[in-house]
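Session log. Operator J.P. requested a structure for one protein chain; no other inputs attached. Running the standard single-chain path with C-alpha coordinate output.
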Amino acid sequence: MLDNLHQMVIFATVANELNFTRAAEKLGISKSHVSKQIKALETRLDCQLVQRNNRSVSITELGQQYAEYSQKLIDTAYEADALLDAHHGRISGVFKVGIAQSFGNRHIIHALADFQAQFPEVELDVSLFDHKPKLLEDGLDCWIAIHDNIPEGMVARKIADCRFIVAAAPSYIEQHGLPSRPADLAQHKCIAYQSNERKFNEWEFTRDGVHQVVKIQSIFKIDNASAILDATKAGAGISYLASYLLEDEFENGSLVRLLTEWKADMVLPIYAVYPRRQHLPPKVRTFIDFLSQQVGNPPHWDKKLFL
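Structure written below.
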Protein backbone atom coordinates (compact mmCIF):
# COMPACT_ATOMS: atom_id res chain seq x y z
CA MET A 1 0.00 0.00 0.00
CA LEU A 2 2.83 2.42 0.83
CA ASP A 3 4.35 1.83 -2.60
CA ASN A 4 0.98 2.60 -4.19
CA LEU A 5 0.70 5.89 -2.29
CA HIS A 6 4.27 6.77 -3.25
CA GLN A 7 3.45 6.22 -6.92
CA MET A 8 0.29 8.31 -6.70
CA VAL A 9 2.22 11.24 -5.22
CA ILE A 10 4.78 11.03 -8.02
CA PHE A 11 2.10 10.76 -10.69
CA ALA A 12 0.12 13.73 -9.32
CA THR A 13 3.30 15.82 -9.39
CA VAL A 14 4.04 14.80 -12.98
CA ALA A 15 0.45 15.66 -13.94
CA ASN A 16 0.85 19.12 -12.39
CA GLU A 17 4.29 19.84 -13.84
CA LEU A 18 3.90 18.02 -17.20
CA ASN A 19 7.63 17.43 -17.03
CA PHE A 20 9.56 14.56 -15.46
CA THR A 21 12.60 16.69 -14.60
CA ARG A 22 10.60 19.39 -12.83
CA ALA A 23 8.56 16.76 -10.99
CA ALA A 24 11.76 15.08 -9.80
CA GLU A 25 13.20 18.41 -8.62
CA LYS A 26 10.01 19.27 -6.77
CA LEU A 27 9.98 15.91 -4.99
CA GLY A 28 13.73 15.81 -4.37
CA ILE A 29 14.26 12.53 -6.22
CA SER A 30 15.94 11.50 -9.46
CA LYS A 31 14.31 11.72 -12.87
CA SER A 32 15.01 8.03 -13.43
CA HIS A 33 13.11 7.17 -10.23
CA VAL A 34 10.13 9.21 -11.42
CA SER A 35 10.14 7.42 -14.76
CA LYS A 36 10.47 4.01 -13.09
CA GLN A 37 7.58 4.64 -10.69
CA ILE A 38 5.26 5.96 -13.41
CA LYS A 39 5.96 2.87 -15.50
CA ALA A 40 5.33 0.62 -12.46
CA LEU A 41 2.06 2.45 -11.77
CA GLU A 42 0.86 1.98 -15.35
CA THR A 43 1.78 -1.72 -15.18
CA ARG A 44 -0.09 -2.16 -11.91
CA LEU A 45 -3.19 -0.38 -13.23
CA ASP A 46 -2.88 -1.94 -16.69
CA CYS A 47 -3.47 1.34 -18.51
CA GLN A 48 -1.53 4.23 -19.99
CA LEU A 49 -1.58 7.37 -17.85
CA VAL A 50 1.19 9.40 -19.48
CA GLN A 51 2.09 10.00 -23.09
CA ARG A 52 5.74 10.92 -23.51
CA ASN A 53 8.10 11.86 -26.27
CA ASN A 54 11.49 13.54 -26.38
CA ARG A 55 10.02 17.03 -26.01
CA SER A 56 6.87 16.86 -23.95
CA VAL A 57 4.70 14.96 -21.50
CA SER A 58 0.91 14.85 -21.67
CA ILE A 59 -1.66 13.08 -19.53
CA THR A 60 -4.22 10.75 -21.06
CA GLU A 61 -7.91 11.28 -20.40
CA LEU A 62 -7.96 8.39 -17.95
CA GLY A 63 -4.75 9.70 -16.43
CA GLN A 64 -6.33 13.09 -15.78
CA GLN A 65 -9.14 11.44 -13.85
CA TYR A 66 -6.69 9.36 -11.84
CA ALA A 67 -4.57 12.47 -11.19
CA GLU A 68 -7.57 14.21 -9.61
CA TYR A 69 -7.94 11.38 -7.09
CA SER A 70 -4.20 11.34 -6.47
CA GLN A 71 -4.20 15.08 -5.83
CA LYS A 72 -7.13 14.74 -3.42
CA LEU A 73 -5.07 12.22 -1.50
CA ILE A 74 -2.17 14.66 -1.24
CA ASP A 75 -4.47 17.52 -0.28
CA THR A 76 -6.05 15.42 2.47
CA ALA A 77 -2.62 14.59 3.87
CA TYR A 78 -1.66 18.27 3.88
CA GLU A 79 -4.97 19.18 5.52
CA ALA A 80 -4.37 16.59 8.24
CA ASP A 81 -0.97 18.12 9.00
CA ALA A 82 -2.43 21.62 8.84
CA LEU A 83 -5.19 20.63 11.25
CA LEU A 84 -2.61 19.71 13.87
CA ASP A 85 -0.64 22.88 13.15
CA ALA A 86 -3.80 24.93 13.67
CA HIS A 87 -4.42 23.10 16.94
CA HIS A 88 -1.04 24.39 18.07
CA GLY A 89 -1.78 27.88 16.72
CA ARG A 90 0.37 27.44 13.61
CA ILE A 91 -0.78 27.94 10.03
CA SER A 92 1.45 28.42 7.02
CA GLY A 93 1.66 28.46 3.24
CA VAL A 94 0.07 30.57 0.52
CA PHE A 95 -3.44 31.88 1.22
CA LYS A 96 -5.12 33.27 -1.88
CA VAL A 97 -8.12 35.49 -1.17
CA GLY A 98 -10.34 37.63 -3.38
CA ILE A 99 -12.12 40.62 -1.84
CA ALA A 100 -14.83 42.99 -3.05
CA GLN A 101 -12.76 45.93 -4.22
CA SER A 102 -14.12 48.97 -2.39
CA PHE A 103 -14.84 47.00 0.78
CA GLY A 104 -11.33 45.54 0.72
CA ASN A 105 -9.69 48.93 0.28
CA ARG A 106 -11.78 50.50 3.02
CA HIS A 107 -11.74 47.85 5.73
CA ILE A 108 -9.82 44.66 4.95
CA ILE A 109 -6.35 45.55 3.70
CA HIS A 110 -5.24 47.13 6.97
CA ALA A 111 -6.71 44.16 8.86
CA LEU A 112 -4.60 41.80 6.75
CA ALA A 113 -1.49 43.42 8.18
CA ASP A 114 -2.69 42.37 11.65
CA PHE A 115 -3.49 38.88 10.35
CA GLN A 116 0.01 38.44 8.94
CA ALA A 117 1.54 39.75 12.13
CA GLN A 118 -0.32 37.02 14.03
CA PHE A 119 0.48 34.33 11.45
CA PRO A 120 3.84 35.28 9.91
CA GLU A 121 4.27 31.96 8.09
CA VAL A 122 1.20 32.65 5.92
CA GLU A 123 1.95 34.20 2.52
CA LEU A 124 -1.01 36.37 1.50
CA ASP A 125 -1.99 36.57 -2.18
CA VAL A 126 -4.78 39.18 -2.37
CA SER A 127 -6.92 40.20 -5.36
CA LEU A 128 -9.44 43.05 -5.28
CA PHE A 129 -12.30 42.85 -7.78
CA ASP A 130 -16.08 43.26 -8.05
CA HIS A 131 -17.00 40.42 -10.41
CA LYS A 132 -18.18 36.97 -9.32
CA PRO A 133 -15.14 34.70 -9.61
CA LYS A 134 -14.77 31.01 -10.40
CA LEU A 135 -13.02 30.07 -7.17
CA LEU A 136 -11.61 26.72 -8.23
CA GLU A 137 -10.45 27.88 -11.67
CA ASP A 138 -8.98 31.07 -10.19
CA GLY A 139 -7.26 29.10 -7.43
CA LEU A 140 -8.90 31.11 -4.65
CA ASP A 141 -9.00 29.73 -1.12
CA CYS A 142 -11.67 32.25 -0.12
CA TRP A 143 -13.73 35.11 -1.57
CA ILE A 144 -15.00 37.95 0.62
CA ALA A 145 -18.15 39.00 -1.21
CA ILE A 146 -20.95 41.50 -0.83
CA HIS A 147 -23.25 39.44 -2.95
CA ASP A 148 -26.48 37.48 -2.59
CA ASN A 149 -25.78 35.13 -5.51
CA ILE A 150 -23.24 32.53 -4.43
CA PRO A 151 -21.58 30.28 -7.04
CA GLU A 152 -22.86 26.71 -7.19
CA GLY A 153 -20.91 24.22 -5.14
CA MET A 154 -19.57 26.85 -2.78
CA VAL A 155 -20.11 27.36 0.94
CA ALA A 156 -20.98 30.85 2.23
CA ARG A 157 -20.45 31.86 5.85
CA LYS A 158 -22.07 35.16 6.74
CA ILE A 159 -19.78 37.77 8.30
CA ALA A 160 -22.26 40.65 8.65
CA ASP A 161 -24.87 42.68 6.74
CA CYS A 162 -24.12 45.53 4.36
CA ARG A 163 -26.76 48.25 4.84
CA PHE A 164 -27.41 51.32 2.71
CA ILE A 165 -27.95 55.05 3.20
CA VAL A 166 -29.18 57.75 0.80
CA ALA A 167 -26.86 60.75 0.64
CA ALA A 168 -25.79 63.77 -1.41
CA ALA A 169 -23.15 66.49 -1.21
CA PRO A 170 -24.00 69.94 0.22
CA SER A 171 -23.20 71.44 -3.19
CA TYR A 172 -25.84 69.24 -4.86
CA ILE A 173 -28.46 70.11 -2.23
CA GLU A 174 -27.74 73.82 -2.57
CA GLN A 175 -28.37 73.64 -6.31
CA HIS A 176 -31.21 71.08 -6.49
CA GLY A 177 -32.86 71.02 -3.06
CA LEU A 178 -33.78 68.15 -0.76
CA PRO A 179 -36.12 65.25 -1.56
CA SER A 180 -38.76 65.02 1.17
CA ARG A 181 -40.04 61.55 0.26
CA PRO A 182 -38.72 58.64 -1.85
CA ALA A 183 -40.99 59.48 -4.80
CA ASP A 184 -39.21 62.84 -5.14
CA LEU A 185 -36.08 61.00 -6.28
CA ALA A 186 -37.67 60.66 -9.72
CA GLN A 187 -37.08 64.41 -10.18
CA HIS A 188 -33.46 64.30 -9.01
CA LYS A 189 -30.15 63.35 -10.55
CA CYS A 190 -29.22 59.94 -9.18
CA ILE A 191 -26.06 57.89 -9.34
CA ALA A 192 -26.55 54.12 -9.60
CA TYR A 193 -24.35 51.06 -9.30
CA GLN A 194 -24.37 49.06 -12.52
CA SER A 195 -22.04 46.35 -13.76
CA ASN A 196 -22.21 43.47 -16.23
CA GLU A 197 -23.54 41.27 -13.42
CA ARG A 198 -25.77 43.57 -11.38
CA LYS A 199 -27.62 46.85 -11.48
CA PHE A 200 -29.38 48.68 -8.69
CA ASN A 201 -31.86 51.08 -10.25
CA GLU A 202 -34.73 50.29 -7.86
CA TRP A 203 -34.26 51.83 -4.44
CA GLU A 204 -36.38 50.43 -1.59
CA PHE A 205 -37.64 52.27 1.49
CA THR A 206 -39.86 51.64 4.51
CA ARG A 207 -41.57 54.01 6.94
CA ASP A 208 -44.18 53.09 9.54
CA GLY A 209 -44.79 49.76 7.83
CA VAL A 210 -45.23 51.37 4.39
CA HIS A 211 -42.91 49.96 1.75
CA GLN A 212 -41.98 51.94 -1.37
CA VAL A 213 -39.85 51.03 -4.37
CA VAL A 214 -38.58 53.89 -6.51
CA LYS A 215 -37.23 53.21 -9.96
CA ILE A 216 -34.66 55.93 -10.36
CA GLN A 217 -33.58 57.49 -13.64
CA SER A 218 -29.84 57.49 -13.17
CA ILE A 219 -27.80 60.02 -15.13
CA PHE A 220 -24.60 58.42 -13.88
CA LYS A 221 -23.94 54.65 -13.77
CA ILE A 222 -20.74 53.35 -12.16
CA ASP A 223 -19.52 49.82 -11.47
CA ASN A 224 -17.43 50.63 -8.39
CA ALA A 225 -18.75 51.66 -4.97
CA SER A 226 -15.80 53.91 -4.08
CA ALA A 227 -16.18 55.74 -7.39
CA ILE A 228 -19.87 56.29 -6.64
CA LEU A 229 -18.87 57.79 -3.29
CA ASP A 230 -16.38 60.12 -5.00
CA ALA A 231 -18.94 61.21 -7.61
CA THR A 232 -21.49 61.87 -4.87
CA LYS A 233 -19.05 63.97 -2.85
CA ALA A 234 -18.27 65.92 -6.02
CA GLY A 235 -21.96 66.92 -6.27
CA ALA A 236 -22.88 64.77 -9.26
CA GLY A 237 -26.11 63.47 -7.72
CA ILE A 238 -27.88 61.47 -5.01
CA SER A 239 -26.65 57.97 -4.21
CA TYR A 240 -27.82 54.86 -2.38
CA LEU A 241 -24.50 54.14 -0.67
CA ALA A 242 -23.17 51.15 1.23
CA SER A 243 -22.79 52.12 4.88
CA TYR A 244 -19.23 50.75 5.09
CA LEU A 245 -18.14 53.75 3.00
CA LEU A 246 -19.65 56.33 5.34
CA GLU A 247 -17.91 56.22 8.70
CA ASP A 248 -16.70 59.84 8.51
CA GLU A 249 -18.51 61.55 5.64
CA PHE A 250 -21.45 62.86 7.66
CA GLU A 251 -19.30 64.02 10.56
CA ASN A 252 -16.85 65.91 8.32
CA GLY A 253 -19.67 67.49 6.30
CA SER A 254 -18.69 66.11 2.90
CA LEU A 255 -22.10 64.39 2.63
CA VAL A 256 -25.60 64.94 3.98
CA ARG A 257 -27.86 62.05 4.92
CA LEU A 258 -31.22 62.24 3.12
CA LEU A 259 -34.70 60.85 3.76
CA THR A 260 -33.79 60.22 7.38
CA GLU A 261 -37.38 59.32 8.33
CA TRP A 262 -37.26 56.46 5.85
CA LYS A 263 -35.26 53.25 6.14
CA ALA A 264 -33.29 52.20 3.06
CA ASP A 265 -34.43 48.60 2.83
CA MET A 266 -31.79 46.94 0.70
CA VAL A 267 -29.45 44.74 2.72
CA LEU A 268 -26.74 42.59 1.16
CA PRO A 269 -24.88 39.87 3.04
CA ILE A 270 -21.13 40.07 3.49
CA TYR A 271 -20.04 36.49 2.92
CA ALA A 272 -16.85 34.51 3.20
CA VAL A 273 -17.19 32.05 0.32
CA TYR A 274 -15.04 28.96 -0.13
CA PRO A 275 -15.14 25.66 -2.06
CA ARG A 276 -17.17 22.87 -0.51
CA ARG A 277 -14.83 20.29 1.01
CA GLN A 278 -15.12 17.48 3.50
CA HIS A 279 -12.62 19.27 5.74
CA LEU A 280 -12.28 23.05 5.79
CA PRO A 281 -8.55 23.94 5.58
CA PRO A 282 -7.40 25.41 8.91
CA LYS A 283 -5.99 28.57 7.32
CA VAL A 284 -9.38 29.29 5.71
CA ARG A 285 -11.19 28.73 9.00
CA THR A 286 -8.63 30.83 10.88
CA PHE A 287 -8.91 33.69 8.39
CA ILE A 288 -12.72 33.74 8.48
CA ASP A 289 -12.74 33.66 12.29
CA PHE A 290 -10.22 36.52 12.35
CA LEU A 291 -12.22 38.58 9.86
CA SER A 292 -15.49 38.02 11.72
CA GLN A 293 -13.89 39.30 14.90
CA GLN A 294 -12.40 42.33 13.10
CA VAL A 295 -15.67 43.34 11.42
CA GLY A 296 -18.15 42.50 14.19
CA ASN A 297 -21.86 41.88 13.79
CA PRO A 298 -23.33 44.43 13.56
CA PRO A 299 -20.20 45.78 11.89
CA HIS A 300 -18.26 48.44 13.73
CA TRP A 301 -18.88 51.11 11.05
CA ASP A 302 -22.66 50.82 11.53
CA LYS A 303 -22.62 51.51 15.26
CA LYS A 304 -22.65 55.28 14.88
CA LEU A 305 -24.77 55.30 11.71
CA PHE A 306 -27.71 53.20 12.97
CA LEU A 307 -28.42 53.97 16.62
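Operator note: The radius of gyration is 26 Å.
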